[in-house]
Structure formats: structure tokens, C-alpha cells
Protein 1
Amino acid sequence: MNERYLLNGENLSFKTFFTMVARAMQLRPPKIKVSRLVTELGWRANLVLCFIAGKAPAITKDSARSAQASSKYSAEKFRQQFNYTFIPIKDAIENSAAWFKAIEK
């Protein structure tokens, strides 16, 4: 059958997603919008510093550019073929936040 699927329950911006995560973790949501220029400089600076430190970069060219892009995906093909319902992202984030808070203690 060789089918491929993108599995996503909802389309959210990075800002919306990280705001939801911050609120679930009882932290302040992000406020500062980072420009494309800062993002491009940031991944390069991170690459140099990580090279010097001998560590893997936390920010890559692809992740920096992805953070600036707006993409929409649909899992409708998967939903229809397998009659599947995704957990709402709000519930998944809240469940994950509760788990992280529990293991911090």
C-alpha cells in the first residue's frame, strides 16, 4: 500500500502553541516577535558557539527558517481512512504539562 500520512490534529502558529504550553506550565507566554534577520543571525551564531563548545546546535538553519514560515497541513486522509479522532491539542498540552510538573517534584 505504501501510503504516507502527516499526522496533526490542528494547525497552530508557533506563537499560539508556545503560549498554550506556557500557560499550561504556569509560565509567562512569549512576548517578543523575532524577526527573520535575528533568526538568521541566531542560527549562525549558535552554530559557531556550538562548534567551539563541541556540542550539537540547538538551532539549525532548517529550524530557524521553519519558525519563520507559515505552513498548513491536513490529516484528513488519515482520519477518513482509519476513522481516527485526534486528542485536542489543548488537552494534550495540559496532560503533558501535568506529567512534567509531577516528575519535577
Protein 2
Amino acid sequence: MSIRDTDQLPKPITRLGDDGIVYHDLTDLSHLSIDLMRFLYGQRLRLTGKARRPVVMLAQHILTVDFEVQLFASHPQIIESTEAVAIVGTSFMLRHLTSMFLSYHAPGYPVALFDEVGEAKEWVLGGVKSSIKPQA
């Protein structure tokens, strides 16, 4: 199986936390495809409707991302329903991918990369407006 055969992998878990954050757990995945992003957004809509929410993506093992994912992140419907996105992971590759995304396709909402879930939660719940986190 190649790294891009995501149809064979388990679907990620999406949940709405008691804190109002939408959590996407991509722990078992190495590739972020446009189909996966559409699935995640569908799960988010199922949980929250089109309400504007902060999002935390647990993405430690992501190694590749489809180009279309970057464009999808800037779609007006996504922008309208996204308060901020915190990406959690420590790998060099995730740092590189996040940096490239923000350099070329930064969406109309804040995006930052964090090493720990606690930092990410704090940022999306209150620190977004008052702090600027280095992106990568």
C-alpha cells in the first residue's frame, strides 16, 4: 500500500469538545487528501452546522498533503465557519508543510502549529487575538 492509499485507512475521529472546539484526530494518517478534507468538513457540519468554530487538528504523522487541500482551506464556506485552526504535531515534515501552506495559501483565519494540545487549545480559545505564534 502506498502512502496515498488513504481509502484503506481508518477514518479520522471528529468530535466537538465541551470547550466548543472541533477536534479532528488524524493520528493514524500520513496523507491529507482533498477527499479526506471534505469528509472532515462534513463531519464538522454534522456536529456544529455552519457555526463559526475553532478547530484543533491532531496531525503528528501527516507527511503529504494534496495541493487541492490548500485551496479548499480558503473556500468562502470554510472561511465563514472557521474561527482559527491549530495544528498539533512536532515532526519536521509537518512544520515544513505548515510553513509552505501559510506562505502560499494562507486562508482568511488564523492558523498556527503547536507541539502540545494544551497550547493549541489555549490559543484557539483566547490567545488567537492577543498573540502571534511563529508558524513553523
